[in-house]
Fold this protein.
Amino acid sequence: RGNRAKGPRTERDELRDEEKRRAGEDPMGVDQFLDQDFGGSEDLNSDSGGEAPSSSDDLSDLDDNGLVQYLPEDAPVQMTVGVSSMGKSPEQAQREVAREASQTKDAMLRELVTREVRSHKEELEALKTKDPEFYKYLQESESQLLEFASDDSAGDDGSASYSSDLEEDDGDNDEEGQAGRAARKKVMLINEEATRAWCASALDKGSLSAVKNVLKAYRVGCHYGDEEEETTQISFRLEDSNAFNQLMLFVLRNADGIFRRLLKIEGKGKGKGKQEATARAMQSSKWTKVGPLVKSFLGNTLHLISHVTEAALNAYIYQRLRSSVDLFTNFPVLSKKLLRLCLDSFGSDLGNVKVDRTLRIQSVLLVRALAVTQDDLRDECYKGLHRSFRSCAKFTNQQNISSIRFMQDCVVEVYATNADTMYKHVFNFVKELALLLRTSLQEKTKDAYERVYSWQVIASMELLEGLVSRYGSEEGATLHPMLYPLVQVLMMTATLIPSSRYLPLRFRVLNAILRLSKNSGVFIPVSSIILDTLNFAELAKKPSGAGNYFSLAGILKVPKPVLRTMAFQDQWVTTTVLLLIEHCSLWSHHIAFPELFLPLGVRCKSYLKSTSMPKKFKAKLAQFMEAAQMTAESIIVRRQIVTFSPRDTNKVEMFLKDGRSQGPTPIDRLYDAVSKQASKQEQLNQAEDVLVGGKEAVRVVGRLEDVTDDVEYNKDFISFDKKIQKKKKGKGAATEKAVQEHTALVKDDGKNEDRVEDFEMSESDEDVDDVFITE
C-alpha cells in the first residue's frame, strides 16, 4: 500500500480527511453519509443522530433543485458555461443551452463575414490603384463583383432571421443546408473577351492579380466535366468552348514564361545554368507569392492529364510541362504523381507507331528531365522505367515488337543521366538475373525453366546488353566491369534448355552476345553454341511438308508441327550460318584468325561429310568454309613476313590497322551479301501485297504465312546472272560443285589468290543469292 501511486484526490478523499480532522469523533461510514438530511440542514458536520427521511419521497427535491441532473442514457451530453439549470426541468435547460449555442455561433459567423467583407474591400481598393484598367473593365462587364461589399453588408440586418432559421431547422438534414449555401454562392461567367483581357494583362504587364484570375479559370477548365460535389467551391464558370480553348492553350503555352518573369529569371539558358538560376529564384522572397501559383498550375494540369484519353493532347501537355520541370522541385508529392502518369503513358498502347512518335517519346523525355532536376526522384525514375518496360515486354508479339525495341532504346537514353546511379541499378538487375538462373539450375523443374524462358527475362537481358554495349564498351567506362557477368548470364541462358523448340530464343541471345563482342572489342567464344543448333534430330529426319514462312520475330518457342517443315528448316540453317559468318567477320582482320577458324573448320567438315544433312544445307556451310579458309590463308601469308612476337601488343594493333586499310576480307564480303539477302527475304515474306512467280505473276494479298496457294519459291523469283544459270545442270549441281571447290582449295594452296578474285562476285547481291535459294 505504501508504494501505491497517488492519483488525483476525489470528493470522497476530501470528506474522509475532514472527518479524520474532527477530534474525538469516529469517521462517518457510507451508510451514515447517505442517511443525512440534505433537504433543510445547512450544517454538514451535524451528528448522525438526526432524523433520517422515512421514505424515498423525501429526496424528490434532488431532481429539481439539486446540483446534479440525472438524464437518460441516450440523451446528448452538452457542455455549457454560465447556464444554471436550478429550478428548471431538463427540457427547459436543454432548450436554453441550444439557444445560447446558436447565438454564439451566429456571432462568430457575423464576425467572420465582416472580416471577409473588409478584406475583400481592401483588395478591391488595392486593385483600383495597382491595375486601373482591369478595375475599369470589371466595372463595365462584371459590376456585380464590385458590389460584393454592399450586398454582404446588407446581409447583417438579416442575421436575426438567419439565426431564427438555424434554430428552426436545427434538426433538419445538413445536406439541405449545404445545397442552400451553394445556391446562394455567386458564380462569375467568363466569356472570350474576359479571357483575352486577363491573358493580355498577365502576359504583357505581368499583373499578379491577373495571373491569379487566369489560373482560377484554368482550374475550372481542368475540372470541366467533374461531378458537382467536386466543383462547389469554384466561383468561375467558362461561358463557351471558345473561351475554354483560348484559356487552356494560353496557360499551357505561356505559363512557364509568366512564372519566370514573375521570378525575374532572365535568359533561356539550358543545363546547369538554368537550374542554378531557378534555384536562386526559388530561395528569394518572390517565391512566396509565385510558389502557390506554380503549385496550382501543376496540380490542375495533373488532374487534366489523368482525365484526357487522347494521346496527342497528352503528348503536348507533357512537352509544355518539360520546360517548367525545374520549378517543380519544391513539390515532391506532385512530382511523384507526375512521374506515375508519365510511366503509365510510357507503357500504353503498344504497337501503335503514332503513339511511339508522340506520347511515348514525350513522356520518357519528361521522366528524363525529372531524373536530371530532382536527385531524390532519380532512383524512382530508373526503377519505374525498368518496371514499366518489363511489364510491357511480358506481352511481346509480332505486332508490338517495334514498340518494345523503341522503349528499350528510350530506357538506355534515360539511364545515361547519372553514371553512379546507372551502375547501381545495372548491377542489381544482373544480380537478379543470375540468381534466377541459379534457382532454375538447382530446381530443374518446368516452372523454374519457364520463369527464365519468358519475354520479361529475355527483354531485360537485351536491355542490359544495350546499356553495357553503349556505356561499357571501352576500358574505364562506367559499365565495363559488368561485361563479363552479363556474358556469363547470356551464355547460361542460351544453353539452359537444349531443345529445338527454343531456337528463336537461342538466336536472340546469340545476337545479343555478338553485339556485345562487336561494340566492346572483346572476343567471346560462341562458335560452339552456334554450331550446336545443327545437332538437333529434326534436321536429320525427313521433312513433313513444304510449309509456309514462319517469322521468328516476336516468338520464343516454335510449335512442334512447324519444326519438321522444309521452310522452317531452311530458315533454321540460314540463320545459323549467318551467325557463324558474323562471328568470324568480327575477327577477320585479327592476327589470330587462323587459330579461331581451326576448330570451326573441323566441325564444319564433319557436317559436310554427314549423310543425314540435306545437300542444300551443306552448300551453305561449304560457302562459309570457303570464305573463311581464304581469309585464314591470307592472314597466314601476312604473318610470315612479320618480325615481332605476339606479346608486342602495339605492333599487333598496327597489324590490325594495316589489315583493315587493305579492304574487306572474303568473309566480310560474304557477310554483307548474306545479311542483305536475309533482310530482303524478311521484307518479302512480311509484305502485305507482293508479286510472286516469274512471268506468270500471282498477286497475293495478306501475309505470306496465310497464303494457301501451291506456288513455291523457285529460281525464277530472283534474276540471276546468265553465266551462273548456265552452270546449273540439275538439282544439287550447286551443292556438289561447292563441295568439289572446297576440296580442291584445301589440296592446292597455290591458287588462293585466284580464288579471291573469283570470290569477288559476292559483292553483287544477285550472284550470292543463288546459294540461298531453295529448289
User: Anything to note?
Assistant: The first helix runs from residue 11 to 21. The radius of gyration is 44 Å. Strands lie at 188-190, 236-238, 689-692, 698-701.
